[in-house]
Specification:
This protein is an alpha/beta fold. 41% of the residues lie in helices and 17% in strands. The chain has 6 helices and 5 strands. It has helices at 16-26, 48-59, 74-80, 93-109, 129-137, 148-161; strands spanning 4-9, 31-37, 65-70, 85-89, 114-118. A 5-stranded parallel beta sheet has the order 3-2-1-4-5, with helices on both faces. Helix 4 (93-109) links the parallel strand 4 (85-89) and strand 5 (114-118). It is globular. Bound molecules: 4'-phosphopantetheine (PNS). Residues 8-10, 37, 73-74, 102, 105-106, 170 line the site of 4'-phosphopantetheine.
Amino acid sequence: MKRIAVYPGTFDPVTNGHLDLAERGRRHFDRLIIAILRNEDKQPLFTVDERVEMLREAVAPWGNVEVDSFDGLLVDYAKRMKAGVILRGIRAVTDFEYEMQMAMMNRRLAPDLETVFFLPSEEYSFVSSRLVREVASLGGSVDELVPPTVARALAARFRLTGPERDTTRS
Ligand code: PNS
């Protein structure tokens, strides 16, 4: 039996913290599916297609990692993909409450699906997509926090739109 895990998120954009977690995840599962939520309400900076492309490029060297997008309930998507595990990262205790609520709700919806939490490297414990967007939008360097393609995409996006404050979450 193959051990399949889904690593869901918004990934707007993917950061080195996400990649650190995926790298850890791929060592523990036969197949790791990074699944981007298609959610129009969040008004993302990058379209789902752009996020899929940036993630695919970043995980290209890893044979057992793939990138997909989904809508609807995560548990339904995980079942369709025949995954037994949902993988999420916890950076600090502040992430815990939100993560636990989601994990418990998902368990209520699908008792056979297990949520597993990994800790990213402490180097990335402060990195979030929201802060990366904010720093990039104000002209700061995020070169060490995101893959090079993402840094270029952020620079291009904010050159086009001009510096602005980012108020969306995560
Ligand atoms: O990166 P994020 O924004 O913290 O990821 C949140 C995500 C995508 C994991 C969560 O919003 C989700 O799973 N949404 C899908 C809808 C769903 O299943 N909702 C009930 C789960 S509690």
